[in-house]
What we know:
Blueprint: H1 2-7, H2 12-26, H3 39-42, H4 47-54, H5 58-63, H6 73-81
Amino acid sequence: MLSEQLIAQLRENLLAESTDIIEQLKSGKTVDRVSPELTRIFRPSVQPSLISWVAYDPQEELAKLNVPLADGLIEKITTFIK
Length: 82
């Protein structure tokens, strides 16, 4: 989801770098070198939290819940977040 949000906001070179960073984080590795433009998102202090966060797919996690959800709630939340 983070990648989708960045697509609309970053120049091509920063988008490529952010994609690489996200892939490193998904593999459980922190990233030492981050462009100044991306440090607000990927600064070293938040990378451990991001590693935990990117391990989950929100839709998969919600599907595991055994509670009734209003029709279209996931879509509404996704649209709101974007």
